[in-house]
Write a structure and sequence with these properties.
By secondary structure, this protein is of the alpha+beta class. 62% of the residues lie in helices and 17% in strands. It has 3 helices and 2 strands. Helix 2 runs antiparallel to helix 3.
């Protein structure tokens, strides 16, 4: 599921965010508890690089909270 995040002057690295959200979405679609557990751990441990013109941090943080809830 593609997210439409605002671009911020100092935001999260877009490629890292996209990859993590894709991993979570793939785990949700698979129905595999192992993949879901791995995705939950990846979200909980995520530390994104900050970039000029990256994704708005508060929006990404909310999207990750939503994914965690769905993965539980």
């Amino acid at each position: 599921m593609a997210e439409a995040f605002m671009i911020a002057l100092r935001g999260y690295d877009m490629a890292q965010v996209d990859a993590l959200l894709q991993q979570a979405d793939d785990a949700l679609a698979s129905g595999s508890e192992t993949l879901r557990s791995t995705a939950r751990r990846a979200i909980q441990d995520a530390q994104f690089r900050q970039r000029l013109r990256g994704y708005a941090r508060y929006q990404v943080d909310q999207a990750l909270r939503d994914r965690l809830q769905k993965l539980t």
